[in-house]
Write a structure and sequence with these properties.
By secondary structure, the protein is mainly alpha-helical. It has helices spanning 12-29, 41-44, 55-81, 87-113, 117-141, 143-169.
Length: 170
């Protein structure tokens, strides 16, 4: 009988891989930062929903979320590498992860770069089901990985409400 992934010894090499994945996803997520212009005339002219958080909150939340989902992806990879999950399930899970990350990164150039709250909402409408599908696929490989993605899903739901609020008010 195979030992479940959550009871296997987690060694230094595994920890380094998880850390590297967390850093790598943060670096990829940072690709959207040059487009973010909270000081722009366009953004300053927008009416924001009452539940819009202070701008500094985004700089705190996103790195934590990117670290969590990077660590989750590493756990899925490790489950495949260690033979704890089928290669097919790992491939599907990591492919979904990659697609949702690309869609996530696309939001900033759409919303900020194009100054289009309506199209930003479309991007988030694509992202939400991709994140849910990623959680489901991660759960088939490693439940811990799926749970690490849940805070990200909740934030994407909140971001969608923010984006909708901005679009509806303007």
């Amino acid at each position: 009988m195979e030992t479940p992934s959550h009871t296997r010894r987690f060694d230094r090499r595994d920890a380094l891989l998880v850390l590297a994945a967390a850093v790598a996803v943060n670096l990829l997520g940072a690709l959207g930062v040059p487009f973010t212009a909270t000081e722009s005339a366009w953004f300053a002219g927008l009416e924001l929903p009452s539940y819009y958080p202070p701008n500094w909150a985004f700089g705190v939340v996103w790195p934590v979320l990117y670290a969590l989902i990077g660590a989750a992806a590493a756990l899925v990879y490790l489950a495949g590498r260690n033979g704890e999950a089928s290669r097919g399930a790992v491939r599907v899970a990591l492919a979904l992860f990659g697609v949702q990350l690309v869609v996530n990164i696309a939001w900033s150039p759409v919303f900020w770069g194009l100054e289009r709250a309506d199209l930003g909402l479309v991007v988030l409408g694509l992202l939400l089901p991709l994140v849910v599908a990623t959680i489901v696929a991660f759960d088939r490989v490693d439940r811990r990985a799926a749970l690490l993605v849940v805070p990200y899903l909740l934030w994407i739901c909140f971001a969608t409400a923010l984006n909708y609020g901005i679009w509806a008010l303007n």
